[in-house]
Amino acid sequence: MTERDREMLVEEAASAWRPRTPDGQTLAHPAWADLDPDTRREVFEDALVMRVLEAALDPDGYSTTVRAVAARLAEQ
Asked: Burial level of 29, CB count in 10 A (0-12/13-18/19+)?
């Protein structure tokens, strides 16, 4: 895997988007399976930072994860 490929996988896995099954179950990002344990830790730490930055930019103080969870709850 090239460094560029690794960087793309890290960026994808750190995003808030997650695939869902037809019945609504949230799954791990597909990029996660292609990462080694050290890179998975890096992704986790990057995701934490990203959620804090998203919340800081949001007028209500919500991250994309909070917004996604709230939207799913509102559907029920």
From this structure: buried
List, in order, residues 6 or more apart from 51 with CB less than 8 Å away: 16, 63, 64, 65
**Residue in the block written with tokens 């960026």:** 11
pLDDT in tens, 35-69: 999 999 999 999 899 999 999 999 999 998 899 88
Cα separation of 62 and 52, whole Å? Answer: 9
Give the dihedral sign, CA 54/60/65/71. negative
Question: What is the value of pTM for the model shown?
Answer: 0.73
